[in-house]
Amino acid sequence: MDKLTLIQPDDWHLHVRNGAILKIVIAHTAQQFARAIIMPNLNPPVLTVDQALAYRSEIIKATPVDSGFTPLMTLYLTNSLTADEVKKAAESKFIHAIKLYPAGATTNSESGVSNLKGIYPILKIMEQVDLPLLIHGEVTNNDCDIFDREKVFVGSSLNDIVKHFPNLRIVLEHVTTKEAVDFVLSASNKVAATITPQHLMFNRNAILAGGIRPHHYCLPIIKREHHRQALVEAATSGNPKFFLGTDSAPHLTNAKENSCGCAGCYSAYGAIELYTAVFDQVDALDKLEGFASCYGPDFYQLPRNTKTITLQKQSWTVPSSYQVDNETITPLKANEILNWKLIN
Prior knowledge:
344 residues, alpha/beta, three-stranded antiparallel beta sheet, TIM Barrel
């Protein structure tokens, strides 16, 4: 197969930032995706419906004219989030979920949840109004090895949340381990997961073998090869519990390439091409449309898109960087050759 037409996909986990970076990220995203769930971990974070609506307006203003792209907004869950704000979010047609970051888990998560039990009353309200919970699933205690943080969270915190709130729709974001995949498979249809391109393409050697590669560093961190294989199997299985979420997270190059580089991979420039290459490698292109275009909107109870996109099997080289004012963003797989290209 050298040409592939899909229902236009959506990105169910995207960081677009704000300011100058926002305009570039949205332009790249809108070339391929019709909609995206927008992460709320700005600095300061998006805590209220009014703040989310203001951020939405900023995104729309930066969106290319006639692209048709729609941002789907979220709130940042803190221990001080009120029941009234949750109900207000559920009543808004623009707010589609609330995001749980354990405090200190990743970029701009300092305002996140420090006491999971303390938010259980809020989770109960979310369950009642059917507002999805999106979870960055890692423990943050210093005595837990960074490669085990997701596994420990899934076996303890997530298991407890699912038991207490069986009707709460939950997306375990950017799963990275076999344990997470197995948990999602064993849970009810209220529990789903997103998978990123970097976790499908790489194991942890990609960060460290032959030198430190900061543009492969993200959180949750990339794991061992058997975990990568479990993710590929899940993504290409045709199981509607797993769908596309890039977790594309742009940082300026000088913020990645320093003695304490930021976590995040920038894939928005060509995400669908990256996913297509993975599915092609395991002879599963027939499963790509479900993963990329169907299962996400179904879980979020939104209509599937009606437009299509077409990809062609042809080689092209990923740019070394993208310009942001006087700075640059270095994309995932910079200067490397991809074998699928979005043509319309």
